[in-house]
Amino acid sequence: MSLEHRPNRIILVRHGESEGNLDDTVYERVPDHRISLTDKGFEQARATGERLREVLDGESVEVYVSPYVRTRQTLEALALPVAERDVRVEPRLREQDWANFQDPADIAEQKALRDRYGHFYYRFTHGESGSDVYDRVSTFLESMHRNFETPAAPRNVVIVTHGLTMRLFCMRWFHWSVEYFESLDNPANAEPVVLLRQPDCRYKLERPFSQWNTAVVPTERERSSWL
To answer: Which of 49, 74, 111, 125 has the least C-beta neighbours within 10 A?
Structure first.
C-alpha cells in the first residue's frame, strides 16, 4: 500500500446513549441489534457531528457503520458530509455478541465471572469473547487497508461502532497487550476517538483512553500510540 494514500484521520465514534444503557432489562424483550437511541443519545450524536464537521472542514470522508439500529441512528444524527455511496454497513463492527434475548441475572453472573477470568478471553454463553471480536476486527482492518490503495482514497475515515469494538480496533492497530486493553475504559456515548496521521505516515491517538486500572503501567510501545 502506498503510504501517502493513507487518510489524514481515522475517527472512531461510539453510538449515543441507547435504551440499553439506561435499562438493561430491555435486552429481555428487544434483540440487541434493534435497540434504539434515547432522546439524549440523539442529542449527543448531533453535538458530536457539529464538532466533526468542523474537523473535517470539507475534506473527503468515507464511513463504516455497525449494522445495529443505535449505530445507524447515530450516523444519521452526526449529519456528516458524506455521499450514500461512501457509507458501508459493516457487520464485523457490530457489538460483542452476549446472547439472544438476555436474562439480566444470568448476564450479571457472567460479568462477574468475566471479571475473574479476564475480559479479553471470557466467552459469554451463546455469545462471543473479546478475542472473538478482536479476530473479526482484524479482518475488517485488512479490508479497510485495501481501500487506501488508490489516489481516490478518502482523506478521512469515520467508523461508527461500539465501545468494546473501538478499544479492540485500537488494540489491534497499535499492537497493545491484553493487560493494557483490559485496563482501559470504554469511551463515553457519542465520544470520538481520533487516530491522526503523523509525518512518517504512522498514526497516534489524539488522546489516550482513560484507564480504570492504573496499576497496569503502559509499555513504551503503548505510550508511543499517544500524541
So the answer is: 125
